[in-house]
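Hi R.,

Here's the chain you asked about this morning:
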Amino acid sequence: MTLGRDKIKYLVYAVWFLLLAISFYFYFFAGDAIQAKLSGIFGSSIILGYVIYLVASCLRGFTLIPITYFIVAGIILLPPVPLYILTMIGVVVSSASVYYFSEYLNFDEYFERKHPKEIQRIKNFLTKNELPIVIGWSFAPFLPTDLICYVCGAMEIDIKKFLFGVVVGEGISCAIYIFLGKEILTFIF
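And here is the predicted structure, written out as tokens:
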């Protein structure tokens, strides 16, 4: 690895940690202010609201914030069909970004050096069952999809198969959250 590539890698790490820290700060300490500001933006221009939601959901994977939080906010602010479409675009972009990000930063080398036996077992199991595992993992509400994105990227699983699995798994769970969630909110209020 060249010195220039190392500097770029450390810069990417620094930017990633900075974005993560900022996201956690806003999430824990300024959530109400952000929500009020977003409500105003969404109320004044639905197109601008769509763009903000799409950009945030595309970048979400780098902050490791689950898509569920975005969906909950989106259910309150957006109609269900556009929300679903924007969420799925965000899931695909975010998943692909995390997939390539992990490969660029050589997470595979780190994990193989630290846990060679476990990684080989996981590789063997995942290689034989790539699609069902990615679909199941992406569908499960208690498992972070970003983690399977990192693992698949580090293991260089076929990107088309990986993204198909994420779209199927996340597509089903997001549809349930969005359309059922909207109905529940309508019933309650």
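One quick note: The longest helix spans residues 159-188.

Cheers,
M.
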